[in-house]
Design brief:
about 180 residues, Thrombin, subunit H, Methane Monooxygenase Hydroxylase, Chain G, domain 1, five-stranded antiparallel β-sheet, two-stranded antiparallel ribbon, globular
Amino acid sequence: MKQKKGALCMFEKGEYVVYGSKGVCRIQEISHVDIPGVDQKRLYYIMHPVQNSGQTLYLPTDSTKAVIRRVMTKEEANRLIHDIPSIEKLEVPNEKQREASYKQALQGCSGRDWISILKTLNQRKEERLAAGKKITALDERYLRVTEQELYGELSVVLGIEKENMHDYIQEQIAAL
């Protein structure tokens, strides 16, 4: 951790982090911000999402509410991919709690949780298609969002285009 102007900062300028539902972001700067209505004594992470670099996000460095973590290392990413076959599907107690279960797992910003969601959603999709039904709008939305989160982080860490990540993961699993 780096000491910065009297405040303890967990992350440093230039570092990549996963910031809640914003996905992978690059910390552009750590400084005070001159925005009306904002405490100018607080330090902020000034970040740009990798997938939307034109957007600027501000997060107080001392925030305890935000879910933010470092991106996984290349070794952690490869281990996560290697572990996919053994990662359990997400347990959903009942249909009424399905969205809450997806949302809670997604908000935890954990690669393992994201894989659990994807395994659950892909199984449900296959079962519905086999029964001649479409995937539900809820499942489709969470499938898309979860893939964006997982593939976004893995693509930054592994240096592989996000669009190629699904195929890359399948190749790695097939080679096990």
